[in-house]
């Protein structure tokens, strides 16, 4: 028997990605530029981390959504959802494109006025409008969307006191076939409250009912839900016409269209699964066109889309702080942005790319933020090349809800930069400073004496 040849054992790294006949594809591509500007230069000029918005992409998103609806329905108006991203430069881009403002607080309402929106192009939503807010909105002839009976009563009272007849809409919630039901805003359709509210508004002399509104949810991936919502609002509008001889001028279908970010727990990437603007537009337009309105009396269609119009126009560029092994042997990265900055990492598995060249070897790793808290997890698991402290990375699709929901926690909030259509960068919100954060603070005299 020939002697067996001894072969030295080798340790081989296991790649998480599968090998196909073209070799192994990791899906990882470096992202060295954002909208034509090198990531390295952005971080050098504005610090790390830094939010970067592409004006070109914002305008492109708006135009394609507007086209999707206006090619199917004769009267279409968008209103920019301020809470999605209310940095003034962003709002001004939407307004320049023709979008009205959709606000949900007195703070946002005043912001819209400050951005030059005429009062009659501001839609005032939300469950918490103060008496002062309502008064201001009436003075400015804005569109006030009523959330509950107490607000309705207050508007009637205010209506008797002002010379302007408040222009209002009734917000309706309903069963659209997606659950859990979103029934905490507005008046319910199924239990008859919506009709009661409509009837009351039409019959109350100081108010002018101009519209009906719904906002059925957020990141709603079922276009059928919008079809149902459009049918139910149309049914109410037609009932107003037939029973009360009152014409509704507009139906506002709200927002809630999905962006192409992948939700945590989703099995497939969102780019392959979520409907696009054409799909939503098709469902809504068909429902309205077939609802039974005469051609000349079709109501204007208002849309308040937020995340779909801006998510992919935003990136966050940041830096690797450290690289470590967890107890179970997994690799992890510590980066300089956490859930305080990137709030949406609580809902989304954000795509993250290295901003420079990398070794072909990739490994599954966790990404943690810099906070001293266990919840500060940017990705539980992601396949990335090994990166070193000082390397930059880019988070994709962060334009919606981060620059409004970010928290000032243990540090200041980062700068926001806009890249215009000519690849010029503009600081549109400076990195906060300690002084800025401390400005509203006051020290009682007995604590101000020194220690
Ligand atoms: C938040 C909000 C929107 C925008 O929602 P998206 O899901 O971002 O499209 C629109 N209308 C109302 C009333 C809202 O509260």
UniProtKB/TrEMBL annotation:
A GO biological process held by the record: lysine biosynthetic process via diaminopimelate
Start and end residues of each Orn/DAP/Arg decarboxylase 2 N-terminal domain: 63-309
InterPro entries membership: Ala_racemase/Decarboxylase_C (IPR009006), De-COase2_N (IPR022644), PLP-binding_barrel (IPR029066)
GO molecular function term, any single one: diaminopimelate decarboxylase activity
Organism: Mucilaginibacter ginkgonis
Pfam families recorded: Orn_Arg_deC_N (PF02784)
Name assigned to this protein: Orn/DAP/Arg decarboxylase 2 N-terminal domain-containing protein
PANTHER family according to UniProt: DIAMINOPIMELATE DECARBOXYLASE (PTHR43727), GROUP IV DECARBOXYLASE (PTHR43727:SF2)
Regions crossing the membrane: none
Cofactor: pyridoxal 5'-phosphate
CDD domains linked: PLPDE_III_MccE_like
Swiss-Prot/TrEMBL keywords: Pyridoxal phosphate
């Amino acid at each position: 028997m020939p002697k067996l040849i001894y072969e030295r054992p080798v340790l081989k790294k296991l790649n998480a990605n599968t090998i196909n006949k073209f070799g192994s594809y990791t899906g990882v591509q470096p992202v060295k530029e954002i909208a034509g500007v090198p990531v390295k230069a952005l971080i050098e000029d504005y610090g790390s981390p830094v939010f970067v918005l592409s004006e070109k992409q914002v305008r492109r998103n708006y135009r394609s959504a507007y086209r999707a609806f206006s090619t199917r329905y004769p009267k279409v108006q968008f209103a920019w959802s301020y809470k999605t991203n209310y940095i003034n430069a962003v709002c001004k881009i939407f307004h320049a494109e023709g979008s009205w403002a959709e606000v949900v607080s007195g703070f946002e309402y005043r912001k819209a006025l400050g951005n030059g929106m005429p009062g009659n192009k501001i839609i005032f939503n939300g469950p918490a409008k103060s008496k002062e807010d309502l008064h201001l909105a009436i003075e400015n002839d804005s569109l006030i969307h009523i959330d509950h009976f107490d607000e309705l009563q207050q508007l009637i009272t205010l209506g008797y006191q002002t010379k302007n007849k408040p222009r209002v809409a009734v917000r309706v919630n309903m069963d659209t076939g997606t659950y859990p039901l979103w029934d905490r805003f507005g008046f319910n359709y199924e239990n008859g409250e919506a009709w009661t509210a409509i009837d009351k508004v039409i019959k109350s002399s100081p108010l002018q009912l101009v519209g009906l509104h719904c906002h059925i949810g957020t990141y709603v991936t079922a276009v059928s839900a919008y079809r149902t919502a459009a049918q139910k609002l149309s049914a109410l509008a037609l009932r107003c016409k037939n029973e009360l001889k009152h014409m509704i001028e507009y139906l506002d279908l709200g927002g809630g269209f999905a962006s192409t970010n992948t939700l945590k727990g989703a099995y497939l990437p969102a780019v392959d699964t979520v409907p696009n603007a054409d799909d939503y537009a098709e469902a809504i337009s068909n429902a309205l066109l077939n609802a039974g309105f005469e051609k000349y009396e079709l109501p204007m269609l208002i849309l308040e889309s937020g995340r779909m119009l801006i998510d992919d126009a935003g990136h966050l560029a940041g830096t690797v702080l450290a690289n470590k092994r967890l107890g179970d042997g997994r690799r992890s990265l510590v980066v300089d942005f956490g859930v305080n900055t990137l709030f949406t990492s609580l809902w989304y598995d954000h795509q993250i790319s290295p901003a420079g060249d990398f070794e072909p070897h990739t490994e599954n790793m966790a990404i943690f933020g810099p906070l001293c808290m266990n919840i500060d997890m940017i990705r539980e698991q992601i396949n990335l090349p090994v990166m070193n402290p000082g390397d930059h990375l880019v988070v994709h699709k962060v334009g919606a809800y981060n620059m409004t929901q970010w928290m000032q926690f243990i540090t200041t909030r980062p700068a926001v930069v806009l890249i215009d259509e000519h690849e010029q960068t503009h600081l549109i919100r400076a990195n906060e400073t300690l002084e800025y954060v401390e400005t509203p603070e006051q020290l009682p005299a007995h604590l101000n004496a020194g220690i």
